[in-house]
């Protein structure tokens, strides 16, 4: 049964209504959908503000949870490559992350960085390394990363 246009004056909102079926074309988010900021002074593009990929893993090759990540490659001590299910439109997308390690009996947090000497970061993957002091890669027991940018 098709739903026809209703006159709002004839509906008593205090009554209970049940609906079964599919609503199409209502509330669709497009690439240009904007939303007001929390204070209402500005707007933001909804699609551009979303994370396009993320991963949580054990610092090795076991993925705990992910979105838009097809594979994880362990390249060595604290060095990982994340391959995307859906490519980014540019190799210049943003990736950031952190790691946790129980190093020498104490809890240590590591930052994740793009591999500085790896110019092959591409639209289809990113290679990152967990480091404590920006010079030494460290294996972590827990790693998480998130990626932002435009998808192809």
Fold and architecture overview:
The protein is mainly beta and 152 residues long. The protein has a domain at 53-148. The protein has strands at 34-36, 43-45, 53-57, 63-67, 69-76, 79-84, 94-103, 106-114, 125-131, 142-148. The strands form 2 sheets. Strands 4-3-10-7-8-9-6-5 form an 8-stranded antiparallel beta sheet, with no helix packed on it. The chain is elongated, with a radius of gyration of 22 Å. The two termini are 39 Å apart.
Q: How can the largest sheet be summarized?
A: 8 strands, antiparallel
Mean pLDDT: 78
- What's the end-to-end separation, in Å? 39 Å
Helix content estimate: under 10%
Number of helices: 0
Describe the protein's topology.
Blueprint: E1 34-36, E2 43-45, E3 53-57, E4 63-67, E5 69-76, E6 79-84, E7 94-103, E8 106-114, E9 125-131, E10 142-148
Antiparallel strand pairs: 1-2, 3-4, 3-10, 5-6, 6-9, 7-8, 7-10, 8-9
Task: Considering the chains and any ligands shown, give keywords for the structure.
single chain; two-stranded antiparallel sheet; 8-stranded antiparallel sheet; mainly beta; 152 residues
Short description:
The protein has 152 residues and is mostly beta strands.
């Amino acid at each position: 049964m098709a739903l026809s246009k209703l006159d709002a004056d004839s509906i008593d909102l205090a009554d209970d209504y049940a609906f079964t079926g599919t609503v199409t074309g209502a509330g669709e988010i497009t690439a240009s959908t904007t939303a007001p900021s929390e204070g209402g002074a500005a707007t933001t593009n909804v699609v551009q503000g979303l994370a396009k990929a993320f991963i949580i893993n054990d610092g090795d090759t076991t993925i705990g949870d992910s979105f838009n990540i097809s594979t994880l490659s362990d390249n060595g001590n604290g060095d990982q490559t994340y391959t995307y299910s859906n490519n980014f439109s540019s190799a210049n997308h943003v990736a950031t992350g952190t790691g946790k390690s129980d190093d020498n009996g104490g809890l240590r947090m590591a930052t994740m960085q793009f591999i500085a000497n790896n110019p092959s970061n591409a639209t289809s993957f990113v290679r990152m390394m967990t480091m404590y002091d920006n010079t030494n890669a460290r294996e972590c027991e827990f790693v998480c990363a998130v990626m932002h940018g435009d998808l192809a």
